[in-house]
Amino acid sequence: MRLPAAPLIPDGDEAREWAERELADTVYRVAEPTPFDRAARAVGDFFLSLFSGDVPAAFGPWLAVAVLVIVLAAIGVAVAIWGRPRRAARAQAAAALFGDAERRSAADLRRAAEGEAAGGRWEAAIVLRFRALARSLSDRTIVPATPGMTVHGFARSAARAFPGETEALTRAADVFDDVRYLRRPGTPDAYALVASLDERLAAAPRPQRIPA
User: Fold this and answer.
1) C-beta separation of 137 from 201 below 8 A
2) Which among 7, 29, 58, 152 would be 20 to 30 A from 104, CA to CA?
3) Distance of alpha carbon 191 from alpha carbon 199, whole angstroms
4) Rounded to whole angstroms, how far apart are CA atoms 91 and 79?
5) What residue ranges do the domains of the chain occupy?
6) What is the pLDDT of residue 98?
7) Which of 152, 150, 144 is nearest to 174 (CA)?
């Protein structure tokens, strides 16, 4: 009977040579991490260290500054992206007044109305003075002049804040519609009605409770 051959046991040099030959196989080279893998792991380890407290003491202050700068930059970007449309919408709403773009203040509109009245252009004077009235109440946050609101809708809202002026507000809105949309001629009396109403409301104290 033939005995099995004894297992070959390499010495130290032979074992090292066999190991190097085995590790040189392409299977092992494919399994090695690529430079990109190493870089990604380094970045991941860095961010994990931010939350694990393993940051070297020398980098602590600089790291805090870097994180603060990143947070502030993110907030700035968010405000720039989402805040700008809202500001534009508010500016557009403030500029719209009874269907027309109007950016002038109440004082500017009053001066313009007085100039038109001095020249006998009562239609333009009435329109400008009613807009001055509306801009004044809107700026005082008593009656917001929202886009699409009509003069009669505004008059009804203003009447809830100033119930004693309900009749005058309705008449002033009628006069505005007459000269603006129905093309009826304006008169000194019609302008005086709107101007006196504007003066009374501008001088009136802000209501303590404004009905919705």
Assistant:
1) yes
2) 152
3) 12
4) 17
5) 45-94, 101-203
6) 87
7) 152
Please give the Cα distance from 47 to 52 (Å, whole number): 9
- Residue 106's contacts (CB-CB under 8 Å, 6 or more residues apart) are 132, 133, 135, 136, 139, 202
**How far is 179 from 11, CA to CA, in rounded Å?**
113
For residues 17 and 13, give the distance between their C-alpha atoms in angstroms, rounded to a whole number: 6
pTM for this model (two decimals)? 0.58
One-character DSSP codes across 34-103: PHHHHHHHHHHHHHHHHHHT---GGGHHHHHHHHHHHHHHHHHHHIIIIIHHHHHHHHHHHHEETTEE--
Q: Is 117 helix (H, G, I), strand (E, B) or coil?
A: helix
Question: What is the radius of gyration, based on Cα positions, of the chain?
Answer: 40
Q: In Å, what is the CA distance from 196 to each residue of 51, 74, 94, 203?
A: 68, 52, 24, 11
The whole-angstrom distance between residue 66's C-alpha and the CA centroid of its chain comes to 27
Burial class, 114, CB count within 10 angstroms (exposed 0-12 / middle 13-18 / buried 19+): middle
* Residues 89 and 143 sit within 8 Å (Cβ to Cβ): no
In the predicted structure, residue 2 carries a pLDDT above the cut 80: no
Which one, of 109, 100, 162, 149, lies nearest residue 132 by Cα?
109
End-to-end CA distance of the chain: 111
Give buried/exposed letters for 156-169 (b at 16+ CB in 10 A, else e): bbbbebbeebeebb
